[in-house]
Amino acid sequence: VESNTMISRRLQRFGEFGSTCYSSSSSRDPSLKYDFLPAEAKDKKVIMDVALNHFIFTAPHCVALGITRNSVKELIDSVVSKSLHDPYCYTIIYKESGETIGFRLMSVAHRDKSKDFEPFELDIRKCEENVQILASIVSTLKEQIWDLRPEANKILRREVTFVRRDHQRRGIAQHLLHLGLDLDRLRTDGFDGVQSEATSIANQTLLAKNGYRMMASAPRKSYIRQDGQPIKFPDATKCAQLYYLSLRK
Description:
The chain has helices at 4-14, 44-53, 60-65, 69-83, 129-148, 172-176, 183-188, 201-209, and strands at residues 34-38, 90-94, 99-110, 154-163, 193-198, 213-217, 241-246. It is of the alpha+beta class. This is N-acetyltransferase domain-containing protein.
């Protein structure tokens, strides 16, 4: 567990990103019980642990597809490593126990993919069918944005936002939505907008309530296995959807 001094230094280091940020519209203030710390490369292990021990057993797409730790570990490693390359990620620490109970991962995407940071080469074709389906659904939505926003050359992507089940419904996701994002600075740095491939009904509802526009949905045929069996969700989620918040004035 980090000391208060260490936490303070980390917040000061990244404080410039919070000067004109969006704040939670919720009457609840989760910062009273939780620390929201800018994530760095050294936080990769704890983020991976939360993702592999909690996220994949909670996220509707992962549950519906029967994703396992071993099958998805390399894909999650890729997403976490890519996201931690840029200063837009957070971990969530429950003050009472010092546990990391969630995270927000964001990455930078360019129309010119040669400018994107890729931590290592990942061959999805070698993964299990369930992981291939998940990766195909998400990656297809990701790439659609360049056709839907032909004027955009650089976008900030919400990769994964996760809060452990026993800490949900406390205003944390709302608080995290734009935490630490200086929208004027993002515009100056050439970002056209913020993109999210929302894979749960809860996330889709959150984004829609906060000014994000639903741009596209994964087609139903994406949710049919090779043997013809449909993929069934454990909740009201119907499909992954692409949401976008334009930063253009």
